[in-house]
Design brief:
disordered N terminus; about 25% strand; alpha/beta; Rossmann fold; 15 strands; 8-stranded mixed β-sheet
């Protein structure tokens, strides 16, 4: 009887330990791998409390983070019936924040709920910046993928890869600088993007497979006269660029890289996210093993640190030191290991892929200097 009691107690203890690990594995699958999770509309995080000429007063929306209204930098403010360009905080008292704004369309009223869109510009290159472009289709093994093509005078093309759950609008902050310098630009899409072919397994693979769409875009550019490529990657888009460098026979054509908060190692990124959410890290090693077996992936497939360290072309690297998603320490390590090729812009107070938002002038200066040195 005593043996049975001890066995039952041990089983109960094991079950109590395993249950949180299984829950973390399910959470990882839903939030990190399932594209459906990214198609939910972003929540309204701020409330408009007052409007004056050129100025808007905001406070956090109910249930939103306490500092939502004072996010540093420039944004697109989106409400149900209007949009505006929103500038950095002018005044704040902990309860409300006053920010400059320029109406874009529709109408904003006191009491409206809204969100701060970090992509900062609406629509497409023409609507955002008056830049002429063409809608083109990139034909890849899984099918046709839409892209924006901005013509230019150079034979080095910029191919721009947005991050997980984002879209081509993410490129609109950088696009005018590349167009100004004469680079033909392709802002591409990839599997699991909205209105694009899904991955065979229906999940993100953090560059392991999405590189095929970048490879197809590079071949599209070659057919139109490109000789080399400047690869631009945001967050998971950086992982896709590095996977391309591992796997594509066109990798030697890369002339340089611009990375913004690149996801260089998924295991480290997951641990960072768990710490940010104050999840129980003692379960993480087990939940990672459970997730890999249950959902059929290998963590090493999502580790691009060695590939990044081995790059032989110039890199412009942006990362905010307040990034809650991808740890800035990954970029710190790359910059420290390869000062010969990496120009590193570590932006104080910037969140995930918000280097431009916090310091657009400094961002533009860094890009122009990098492009000049690349010539």
């Amino acid at each position: 009887m005593r043996t049975r009691t001890l066995a039952a107690g041990a089983a109960a203890a094991a079950g109590a330990f395993l249950a949180p690990a299984f829950q973390l594995a399910r959470l990882l699958d839903r939030q990190a791998f399932d594209p459906a999770n990214d198609r939910l509309p972003a929540p309204f995080t701020v409330t408009v409390t007052a409007i004056a000429p050129g100025r808007l007063t905001l406070r956090p929306a109910p249930g939103a983070p306490a500092g939502a209204h004072r996010e540093p930098g420039r944004y697109l403010l989106e409400a149900a019936r209007g949009r505006a360009s929103l500038g950095p905080v002018l005044e704040e008292n902990g309860v409300v924040a006053i920010r400059p704004f320029t109406p874009l369309e529709g109408e904003l009223r006191p009491g409206d709920f809204a969100r701060l869109d970090s992509f900062a510009f609406p629509g497409d290159p023409r609507q955002a910046h008056g830049i002429e472009f063409q809608d083109v289709a990139i034909h890849a093994p899984l099918g046709a993928f839409p892209a924006w093509y901005v013509p230019g005078s150079r034979d080095t093309w910029a191919i721009m890869v947005h991050g997980k759950g984002a879209n081509r609008r993410e490129t609109l902050r950088l696009l005018p600088l590349l167009a100004e310098a004469g680079y033909p630009c392709l802002a591409i899409t990839y599997r699991n993007d909205e209105a694009c072919p899904p991955a065979p397994g229906g999940r993100y693979t953090y560059g392991r497979d999405e590189w095929e769409e970048l490879d197809a875009a590079a071949r599209f550019a070659l057919d139109l006269g490109a000789r080399r490529f400047l690869l631009v990657g945001y967050s998971m888009g950086g992982a896709i660029c590095l996977s391309f460098m591992e796997r594509s026979d066109l990798a030697p054509r890369a002339a340089g890289f611009i990375f913004d908060a690149p996801m260089l190692d998924f295991r480290t990124t997951v641990a960072h996210g768990a710490r940010q959410r104050r999840l129980p890290l003692r379960y993480l090693a087990l939940s990672n093993r459970i997730a890999a077996r249950r959902y059929g992936f290998n963590w090493d497939d999502f580790d691009y640190r060695r590939t990044a360290m081995d790059l032989q072309r110039p890199v412009l690297l942006f990362h905010g030191d307040a990034d809650p998603l991808v740890p800035v320490e990954l970029s710190d390590s790359l910059a420290a290991a390869r000062p010969d090729i990496v120009r590193y812009v570590r932006v104080p107070g910037a969140g995930h892929v918000r280097a431009w938002n916090v310091d657009p002038e400094g961002y533009a200066d860094a890009v122009r200097a990098f492009l000049t040195a690349l010539e």
